[in-house]
Amino acid sequence: MERPGVSRRALGALALSGAAVGLSGCEGAGDTDLNPKSRQFPKDFVWGVATAAFQTEGSQTADGRGPSVWDVFEKVPGRIKDGSDATVATDSYRRFQDDVDLIAGAGLNAYRFSISWSRILPTGEGPVNAAGLDHYSRLVDALLAKGVTPYATLFHWDLPQGLQAKGGWANRDTAQRLADYAGAVVARLGDRLKNYIILNEAAVHTVFGHVLGEHAPGLKDAALLGAVTHHMNLGQGLAIQALRAARSDLAVGTTMALQPCRPAGGPLAFWNRLASDGLDQIWNLSWLDPLFKGAYPKAMEEPLKGVLRDGDLKITRQAVDFLGVNYYAPAYVRLDLSAPSRIAAAPAPGGAEQDAFGRHVDPSGLFEVLNRVRREYGAPKMFVTENGCSDPFGSGPAILDDTFRIKYLRRHLQAVLAAREAGCDVRGYFEWTLIDNFEWDLGYTSKFGLSAMEAASGRRIPKASYAWFKALAESGVLPSAP
Ligand code: FCB
After folding, report:
1. Cβ contacts of residue 106 below 8 Å, gap of 6+?
2. If you take atom 9 of ligand 1, which residue's CA is the nearest one?
3. Per-residue pLDDT tens over the stretch 106-144
4. Which pLDDT tens digit goes with each residue over 184-204?
5. Is the C-beta atom of 439 inside 6 A of ligand 1?
6. Average pLDDT in the 387-391 region?
7. Whole-model pTM above 0.90?
8. Residue 52 CA to ligand 1 centre (angstroms)
9. Secondary structure tally for the chain: helices H, strands E
């Protein structure tokens, strides 16, 4: 019924059946531009791009790297939309210097990349693979040499297959393995790598990887929800402790996919609101609350039976130096009695601008999630650690004159400025992403890059948005058009 990208990103998606049947549209969100008073970002604002190891590196067997769950998943016929894989991707393991030049060439002062766990610990545990760490050591040095500050994500969905074979995140031991891995990284890189993001969008990995089966490890088992969620939260807490124990000069945070959940209206409005609240608890609060409050929302009570142990919530609750917020679009939600979760995607409000995935382009959602974190979670320092849009859907060539992307970025950056004016402590913005890459289950059909890549030569080709972003990062002034 929907293209795969819609189901993931619109997420309404805990149960997808019937989401396209004619329903009353959702409340709220008419046109949603924010109008900040000033268009000037502060001088010390962090400007960066974000990437992930599996989506970019290729070289899947180089220097002793072990397989991850995504190596296994991408080979299962029918799992990746265009039948492609990430064995080459943007070839960034070999061409990392090209990437660094591209980043520095855009005047950016930060780069968010992820470390591949199975390069460091090929089976997820046991002896450390020094050659894997050497690669990231070279990358960090190359960035620092150009004045670009590295921000490393430790887990961007590529769990070592060796750990999956032992139950993956459903196995409580995996939490401790994450902490051990964090310890190995900081022991080698901590003298130069100071910024750490423990998890990337754990909600996506939990729901799309374990409940819907659209992502690795490809499980479709709603009964895993509690264990997977909690063990990631626990692992995050343990990993933060491990980093803090190793060094006192780090900035440690984590990144969440925060989405405002908006219920459909109409005669079932009351019930739709319940469904929307349920999704909000599972998608947003199940990650925010354990970290900032040492608690879980009510909807998790049942799934956590037999999983949560005494003392765990003291570990999940940690002081972080910042929260990373990834934002693409709001979720529109309705009740669906035929779905096991009773939750389904609803159509966005009529007339709303949509992107190539059919998602509502809605900068007010970004403003909303930033303000929610400010109000309800003690106004932490925040970075927008991902935001961006894809080329119009399809497997055609990249669109180099990507004015739609420029417009998307400009409108969302207005929301960032407005959020700062409202008191949100947003210190930086990482655009997703540097180069069109392997977009998970969508393969190469979905292109989010500021640059394209010529497949045969690996040459990076900047798009119009690259020059636009460069001008912004260099001046700190957000233009008012296009
Ligand atoms: C986010 C993921 C990132 C990429 C973008 C488009 O949900 O964190 O890896 O897929 O979406």
Report:
1. 49, 450, 466, 469, 470, 473
2. 52
3. 999 999 999 999 999 999 999 999 999 999 999 999 999
4. 999 999 999 999 999 999 999
5. yes
6. 94
7. yes
8. 8
9. 16, 13
Q: Is 437 helix (H, G, I), strand (E, B) or coil?
A: coil
Q: Which domain holds residue 384?
A: 8-475
**Active site (annotated) includes residue 201:** yes
392 prior amide bond cis, ω within 30: no
CA 283–ligand 1 middle distance (angstroms): 15
Question: For position 245, which CATH number holds?
Answer: 3.20.20.80
% of the chain exceeding 70 in pLDDT: 93
Considering only CA atoms, which of 438, 434, 418 is closest in space to residue 426? 418
| Any domain includes 29 | yes
200 lines ligand 1 (CB under 6 A): yes
More confident residue, 52 or 29: 52
Question: Of ligand 1's atoms, which has the minimum distance to the CA of residue 448?
Answer: 6
> How many angstroms does the Cα of residue 248 sit away from the middle of ligand 1?
30
pLDDT in tens, 51-91: 999 999 999 999 999 999 999 999 999 999 999 999 999 99
Tell me how far the alpha carbon of residue 350 lies from the centroid of ligand 1, in angstroms.
Answer: 26
Residues 214 and 8 sit within 8 Å (Cβ to Cβ): yes
Q: How far is the centre of ligand 1, averaged over its atoms, from the C-alpha of 49 (Å)?
A: 12
CA distance 367 to 370: 5
Q: Considering 57, 214, 368, 386, which one is annotated as catalytic?
A: 386
Instruction: Please tell me if the CB atom of residue 440 comes closer than 6 angstroms to any atom of ligand 1.
Output: yes
- The reply to whether 3 falls in a domain is no
Tally of domains within the chain = 1
In angstroms, rounded to a whole number, what is the distance separating the alpha carbons of residues 97 and 139? 8
74 part of the active site: no
Q: Kindly state whether residue 131 falls inside one of the protein's structural domains.
A: yes
Q: What is the spatial distance between Cα 147 and Cα 153, in angstroms, rounded to a whole number? A: 19
Pocket lining: 432 vs ligand 1, CB cutoff 6 Å: yes
The active-site residue out of 74, 201, 214, 439 is 201
Q: Is 207 in the pocket of ligand 1 (CB under 6 A)?
A: no
Tokens of 114: 């992820």
d(CA 295, CA 190): 31
Say if 377 falls within a structural domain.
yes
Where helices occur in 253-381 by DSSP H, the ranges are 269-280, 286-292, 312-316, 363-376
